[in-house]
Design goal:
Blueprint: E1 2-8, E2 17-20, E3 34-36, E4 44-46, E5 48-52, H1 59-75, H2 93-96, E6 100-109, E7 121-130, E8 141-148, E9 157-162, E10 168-170, H3 179-186, H4 193-199, H5 203-212, E11 215-217, H6 228-237, H7 239-252, E12 256-262, E13 269-274, E14 281-282, H8 288-306, E15 309-312, H9 324-330, E16 342-346, E17 361-366, E18 372-376, H10 389-394
Parallel strand pairs: 5-16, 5-17, 11-15, 15-16
Antiparallel strand pairs: 1-2, 1-6, 3-4, 6-7, 7-8, 8-9, 9-10, 12-13, 13-14, 17-18
Helix pairs in contact: 1-5, 4-5, 7-8
């Protein structure tokens, strides 16, 4: 579970912003909306995190920072050495000439050699600092550090730390004999230590990279959105997901009777049979809403199956408002979400506030200088658990509301 994020000088987030999802120990949770940040932990955080705010307030940039962090740790070695990292700094001359800093706190294994999800877990923190950009619009890693607290508390132990020269210091036993020399030779200025070590067949690094595959997002950084045949192939290989799609599609589009996969050609196609129509409808002729739901459902199901993190931008624009609360409840159901998966999403529909608790709600707003700030509803003073979040938000009591005229 991801429970703390810090962002500075990343897209519209100029000044440092922090989101700590951990609830106070005194918070009563009769509905079971909070989960231990790892099995056995006293600290709890929500499995659903919904970000609200006006258009262009920077909601998507909060999710983009998480997506970028997961990409950088796991896949940045794939980036061509002459290419820049796929992000932007805050759009002012002052901020372009300053570093970017991202930090993420999450649950990870106590024993680095026992990386299965069944093992004991503890808090981890990963921090990356990227330099100012030069005349070629390129930047480099100034600092990279991963630490953990194997006892669950106390001073963190540094697993590895990298400085602005690319020198890496690691805890005893983390870098086997000879690996430190190989790392020094191949580590690139815009690639992570973990992604690089994975290329050197470092067992722990490879396990971390594998675990990052459970962080799934519909925000694309270094590639374009998957085309139709890739999406269809995924459903073809996941029969349970196709069954789930069939069940829900019949509710959001009452005309759909059946969804099938045509395998007669080299590229499989999704085909839709509608009541009253003799002609079979292809995917690209379906409604925009149905298409978007079919695209986003795999991310949700993959996270639930693996206990990962689903990062979905504008989930409420892809799912019918009557179905959306059901999707959210999947992440709150201990049977359906037995691996403690988490959902982060941006939302425009204020009515969804009625389905959430104050620990699950984040607000974004942008000031006159274009800087995004983010805050938890739970941190707003005198907000009662049973009050009408929807009405008070639209009434402007929490801030972060659209203003017309």
């Amino acid at each position: 579970m991801l429970y703390k994020v810090e962002i500075e000088n990343f897209y519209s987030v100029g000044q440092r912003q922090g989101v700590d999802l951990r609830a106070r120990k005194s918070v009563d949770d009769p509905l079971g909306r909070l989960s231990p940040i790892y099995p056995g932990a006293e600290e709890r955080a929500p499995n659903v995190v919904a970000v609200f705010g006006p258009n262009a307030a920077g909601k998507s940039n909060i999710l983009r920072a998480i997506t970028f962090g997961a990409w950088f740790v796991g896949r940045s070695f794939d980036l061509r050495p002459d290419c820049n990292l796929p992000y932007q700094k805050f759009g002012s001359e002052e901020r372009i000439s300053k570093p970017t800093r991202l930090s993420f706190s999450f649950a990870g294994p106590v024993e680095l050699r026992e990386l299965s999800s069944a093992g004991r877990q503890c808090p981890y923190t990963y921090e990356i600092v990227l330099s100012e950009r030069d005349v070629q619009n390129l930047d480099v890693v100034q600092k990279e550090r991963m630490s953990y607290r194997p006892k669950g508390h106390g001073k963190p132990t540094t697993i590895f730390e990298r400085d602005h020269r690319g020198s890496v210091k690691a805890m005893k036993g983390f870098l086997p004999s000879g690996t430190d020399k190989a790392l020094k030779e191949v580590l690139r200025p815009r690639a992570s230590v973990i992604a690089t070590l994975a290329q050197l067949n470092h067992i722990v690094a490879q396990a971390f990279v594998q675990s990052l595959s459970s962080v799934v997002s519909n925000i694309f950084l270094d590639r374009v959105e998957e085309d139709g045949w890739q999406l269809t192939r995924w459903y073809q290989n996941n029969a349970a997901a196709l069954d789930e799609l069939q069940r829900i599609a019949k509710r959001i589009d009452l005309g759909i009777e059946e969804i099938a996969i045509d395998t007669a050609t080299s590229d499989p196609r999704l085909l839709f049979k509608h009541s009253g129509l003799d002609q079979i409808i292809t995917f690209n002729r379906e409604s925009h809403g149905t298409q978007q739901f079919i695209k986003v459902l795999p991310y949700i199901l993959m996270a639930l199956d693996s206990g990962g993190v689903a990062i979905i931008d504008e989930l409420d624009t892809t799912i019918h408002p009557l179905i959306l609360p059901e999707i959210l409840r999947w992440f709150l159901d201990r049977d359906r979400n037995s691996h403690n998966a988490q959902l982060w999403t941006t939302c425009h529909s204020a009515s969804l506030l009625s389905e959430l608790t104050k620990e699950e709600i984040l607000f974004c707003e942008k000031d006159a200088t274009g800087n995004t700030s983010v805050f938890k509803l739970a941190d707003v003073e005198r907000v009662r658990r049973n009050e009408n979040f929807y009405g008070k938000y639209l009434g402007g009591e929490y801030g972060a509301v659209p203003v017309l005229g």
